[in-house]
């Protein structure tokens, strides 16, 4: 894997990244990760960004755990504040980060009361020209009132509506904001709460934007529970540098609104898993911590489209399967319902993500690979 990365670095070494076409830019972004990307092109980026006006970001929190903010704060090389500064981004509003900074931020009152935050937000919305980052789903229940999801005296639905309508673009960050995520987990109160993603809820297109009649905003989905900091910062960089045309996102997003460079439609996580050799040889663990492939203890990676296995987490240190945990498909639209039970082999479950496993297999990884996988599983079972 290390040599694969070195080859990529060699391949992109002498590029003037700002002059290359969008496809090559996105390829470099996907292949290198934020750390290598910024260290390789830092000077070029700094020069280019000096000519750009500051990009304003408004970051809202709906129904969520703030894990995606924490994930962004875990970014390394560059760190969160450094990345914003490198990208000439001004984080104008973020409820969990701005509040502790004191009474004044840039001369405006914030954090002293709900009201001050509200005044600040209204001023920013009125001025317009910002990228809206939405973290968390948006409550529509009960009965379309949105009152299940209040911030101060306002529904989050109404706060989202005013911010979304005046935004230049919307980034839905994390699986709650993109598809509902953990807030749409099947339970007795799911219908009553009616949580929604920005543009989609589970596998149903539309989301809160359809309810509010917002149809003309560019929306980029960056799912993940949480989302990877690289996915966020590199998307923001590509937007700011004009490498993503907000008026035409069709070529770069997949059917679920995700950038194909980070969530490749033609590859699965399983392709590059560090445990893949065990899978191919049929060394399938029956219990955790046996050191082999995690398929039989519930790994969903053969059905998942994300580059976690190449990019890895915590500054390129590890990823779920490497650390011994099966992939639970946290980037897919119908996480978590479709990937439960988490620790049960999927072939034995018969259905995955709500549809027949054969259909998913053909769509997601190709019949040949599934056949090989099923064969490996069956072979081991037979031998026992
Ligand atoms: S099934 Fe999971 S643990 Fe096994 S090789 Fe594939 S991705 Fe890795
Ligand atoms: S490996 Fe799977 S569960 Fe882990 S972060 Fe990636 S998509 Fe999510």
TrEMBL record:
EC category: oxidoreductase
InterPro entries (UniProt xref): Cytochrome-c3_hydrogenase_C, NADH_UbQ_OxRdtase-like_20kDa, NiFe-Hase_small_C_sf, NiFe_Hase_small_N_sf, NiFe_hydrogenase_ssu, TAT_signal, TAT_signal_bac_arc
Cofactor: [4Fe-4S] cluster; [3Fe-4S] cluster
UniProt entry tagged with the keyword Iron: yes
Gene Ontology terms: biological process: anaerobic respiration
GO molecular function terms listed in the Swiss-Prot or TrEMBL record: 3 iron, 4 sulfur cluster binding; 4 iron, 4 sulfur cluster binding; electron transfer activity; ferredoxin hydrogenase activity; hydrogenase (acceptor) activity; metal ion binding
Record has Repressor as a keyword: no
Annotated binding of [4Fe-4S] cluster 1, by residue: 65, 68, 176, 225
Subcellular location: Cell envelope
Ranges where the Cytochrome-c3 hydrogenase C-terminal domain occurs: 267-342
EC number(s) per entry: 1.12.99.6
The NADH:ubiquinone oxidoreductase-like 20kDa subunit domain, residue ranges: 65-238
GO cellular component: [Ni-Fe] hydrogenase complex; ferredoxin hydrogenase complex; membrane
Gene3D superfamilies given in the database record: Cytochrome-c3 hydrogenase, C-terminal domain, NADH:ubiquinone oxidoreductase-like, 20kDa subunit
Keyword field: 3Fe-4S, 4Fe-4S, Iron, Iron-sulfur, Membrane, Metal-binding, Oxidoreductase, Signal, Transmembrane, Transmembrane helix
Transmembrane segments: 351-377
PANTHER family found in the cross-reference section: HYDROGENASE-2 SMALL CHAIN, NIFE / NIFESE HYDROGENASE SMALL SUBUNIT FAMILY MEMBER
Protein name: Periplasmic [NiFeSe] hydrogenase small subunit
Species the sequence originates in: Methanimicrococcus hongohii
